[in-house]
Amino acid sequence: MVHRAAAQCTEADVPWASGKGNAERRDRSRQNVYSTLQRLDHHAQNKPESIHPPPPNTSRLSSSAAGEMMMLVNCSGCRTPLQLPQGAPCIRCAICGAVTHVAAAPAPGPLADPARGPPPPPAHGRKRAVIIGISYRFSRHELKGCINDAKCMRHLLTTRFSFPDDSIIMLTEEQTDPFKIPTKHNIRMAMYWLLQGSQPGDSLVFHYSGHGAQQRSYSGDEADGMDETLCPLDFETQGMIVDDEINAALVRPLPHGAKLHALVDACHSGTALDLPFLCRMSRTGQYIWEDHRPRSGVWKGTSGGEAISFSGCDDHQTSADTSALSKITSTGAMTFCFIQAIERGQAATYGSILNSMRTTIRNTGGGDSMAGGGAVTSLISMLLTGGSAGTGGLKQEPQLTAGDMFDVYAKPFSL
To answer: Could you please report the per-residue DSSP string of 179-207?
Structure first.
């Protein structure tokens, strides 16, 4: 068993377009064209006409006596220079009759900053999710079950809750797209994407499986004086993501009528979203809501939406990466128990889910409490990844936090 806590077009482009000598050459070119048209007027009764079939051909810019920008193109048949009226896609040569097509100039688009990567994909759909699984491979922080967690969570969302597959962004080290590697920058961009354009009726899910930690808070907003953090793949060089930033990215922009569920399977994750209220539940299932609103008065809730978070453990606890639950391969204890509660029909309310998760973890290694499960739990059995041994009970208690207090045994659970 491993704990999920980490150790700490310009003029230069067209030079012929300026200069005295070049201007003279352009004037001579226009005079030649004019003289040729006069001499051969009996071959063409009409002036050059514009027609509209498809492009393309090369073009150059010219300036008429009236100051209007013109295209100077070579005829595709006889190579005679022709002046194309502004906006016309093609022109017919009065000499040989050939039609010369001109490709429209591409519309300028936003420039991507190669140092920061492309902008996130456009948000779409009523259901969206960001799933993050970090194994920290080949480092002293390596975890075995986090990518398994991400795969199983994606399977759960698409098969059980009808999340469109293309509305889920998954960040793991297995991704071939460099912008889907779980670095600090990519995680920040994924959080931005999740809330981008959110509106009433949206159901959003944020799932994180990886290392979590704490660092001293200097804002005075934390009752215990510590900020909870998530550890991206590059946290040792780029730093951790602090709960204040997670709250600002995922919670505060959430509009009225939209719903966010977060699942944070990491150490010290009890208040990782900095939500105002924590459901303190006893082993018998009784509970009270603790007020975690900062004494400074800073608002940590939503903009009218509903935010609810399940986390792997309390702020002072560690969360397990273990094979003791699946008996086959490593998983995060919290993610496994959350999925199992849904598959066993113990997810009618938020209270029943939390109770089921806590009971399963307490009884780990105790007889048939780990038996059963459905398609997603069975999927874990098919994951051909190694596992780390785990024995005995797990010393963690999953937590529930929310933007508003509610009756956990009366409120139906839905994604």
So the answer is: GGS--HHHHHHHHHHHHTT--TT-EEEEE
